[in-house]
Write a structure and sequence with these properties.
The chain is α+β, with helices and mostly antiparallel strands. It has two helices and ten strands; from the N terminus they run H-H-E-E-E-E-E-E-E-E-E-E. It starts with a helix and ends in a 5-residue tail after the last strand.
Length: 165
């Protein structure tokens, strides 16, 4: 349903741009880019409640899943995506300023993983001691590093950005 609404909004915005003639309207172009990005993030999946575009084709989305979750028959889970490719439940997605690589914490393993378009699978960067979770990632692409901080841990981990070179 949401994808149909997004498609309709894109067509409406495109029609509005056409009526502007030769004028360039950055706000309208931004709306079209945003709506087109929403359509590709978690594209085709049902139960998408919220999409967060992160740049470079990366996003995270909250999915609504029916099941037996104790007190409630519906679960709400954050998943990480590159375009329509679902990497599963995640937390703390961060995308490098260039948009060329993203990292997040895999909920099933606790590992912090990274993915670049063109890779077959995400690569494990770091395994936090449980019950830590990723709090922040500070990118320094010119230096080829990313600094990770976990909740409940004073330590920071400076890592080489994989595939940088």
């Amino acid at each position: 349903m949401l994808d149909t609404q997004v498609t309709a909004a894109v067509l409406l915005a495109a029609g509005s741009l056409h009526t502007l003639g030769r004028m360039r309207n950055p706000a309208a172009l931004s709306v079209i880019a945003l709506l087109t990005g929403c359509a590709t993030c978690a594209g085709g999946l049902s139960g998408v409640e919220e999409r967060n575009l992160r740049g470079g084709g990366f996003c995270d989305a909250t999915l609504q899943v029916s099941g037996d979750f104790g007190f409630e028959g519906v679960g709400h889970f954050r998943h990480c995506f590159y375009k329509a490719r679902d990497f599963g439940q995640c937390d703390g997605m961060s995308v490098a300023p260039s948009g060329s690589i993203a990292l997040w914490q895999d909920v099933s393993t606790g590992s912090v993983v990274a993915f670049r378009p063109g890779w077959h699978q995400p690569q494990v960067l770091l395994s936090f001691p449980t019950p830590s979770s990723l709090q922040s990632a500070n990118w320094n692409e010119p230096a080829g590093t990313v600094t990770l901080k976990a909740w409940n841990h004073a330590d920071e981990h400076q890592l080489a950005i994989p595939g940088n070179g």
